Structures are given as C-alpha cells and as structure tokens.
Amino acid sequence: MKALILTAEDFEDSELLVPYYRLLEAGYTVDVAAEKRGAIRGMHGYEVTASKGFGDVDPQSYALLILPGGKAPASVRKNLSAISIARYFIDNNKPVGAICHGPQTLISAGVLRDRRATCYHTVADEMREAGALYEDSEVVVDGRLVTSRHPADLPAFMREVIKLLSLRGVCVPDEYWGEDAAIPFEASIKKLI
C-alpha cells in the first residue's frame, strides 16, 4: 500500500517527517511529491527528496494523502496539479491527513464546505470563510479527513490517521482479507464481542 505526501520548500520538518516514518513503520511505501523532483528543505533545515513532481502523481495508486504544514502549503495550494490531487482524494472518499497550514491546500481545492476540521490558528478565519466547521481541537476527524493544528498535535494526528487506515475496507480492499472478505467489518466486530 502506498501513501503520498504533497509538500514544497519550507515544510514544517516534524509534520512531514513524523508521518513519513510512522507510515513506513506501518508498512506503507511513502512517496513525497513537490513541484519538481529533487531535494527540498524544511523550515528547520531537514532535507528530503521529492521522488515525484506533482504532475507525475497518479492519485488512484495511493491509499492516503498527507498535507504537512509550515510555509510549503502557500506554494502547494497554487499548483493546479496538487489541487487536483487533493480534490481527487476528497471526492473519492480516500483518507486525507492535513496538519497546521496543510488544510490550505484543501481550502484552495474547495473541498471543506460543511466539513469539520481544524488548522493552525492563523488559518482558522480562512477555513471558516471556505465553509468549514472549524474546531480548535488537537485532532478533528470528519469521515476520512483527519486534521490537526500544529506539531504538538502530531501524536493525536497520527493516532487517528493510523486508526483510520487500520479499518477494514477503508484503505485495504476486501480481497486483501482472504476468505473472510464476504463478512462485513461490523459483523466481524460483533463476533468478537
């Protein structure tokens, strides 16, 4: 299974690196995409390699989208390919995690109207203006959308992202589960109780 991180120069280092390594640890292949392939640097000096340009991304091949914050979303949200990728994930009910300024990309994609979400406090008014139902909480889960405010929220953010990914049928096709695939997830939980 594959996860995608959309970012640019001046990302918030921890908001990219914590999800990146946590998803690798969970068994995902993680691709970082930026405007073009190559090295990009975070606000605190960490360097990562963007293995794809935004235009090279086929969003259908990914189970999850992560949108880290920092100053990067200011440029990500201006890229039509990045906006299209974000819109694809939301329109197709695929999991999205956005933290800090990361939700700005979702604002530009026009996909937050009537959705519960949170973000860095300086983005809150813009989020409300986009029609989102803003909450000042460490993590907000609305369906398959997980949002958080800042780096201190990363434990709650990743807890909810991983929880979402672990639900049968969310990111793992039923075929993966073998002969039990015909049993709905809720029914299999009731069997355990």
List keywords for this structure.
193 residues; Rossmann fold; alpha/beta; globular; two-stranded antiparallel ribbon
Question: What would you say about this model in short?
Answer:
This protein is α/β, with parallel strands linked by helices. 33% of the residues lie in helices and 21% in strands. The protein has helices at residues 13-25, 73-76, 80-91, 103-109, 124-129, 154-166, 185-192; strands spanning 2-6, 29-34, 38-41, 47-50, 52-53, 64-67, 96-99, 116-117, 133-134, 139-142, 145-148.
**Secondary-structure class:** alpha/beta
Q: Remind me, CATH topology?
A: Rossmann fold
Spans of at least 5 consecutive residues with low confidence:
173-193
Shape: globular
Structure description:
Helix content is 33%, strand content 21%. With 193 residues, it is of the alpha/beta class. The two termini are 29 Å apart.
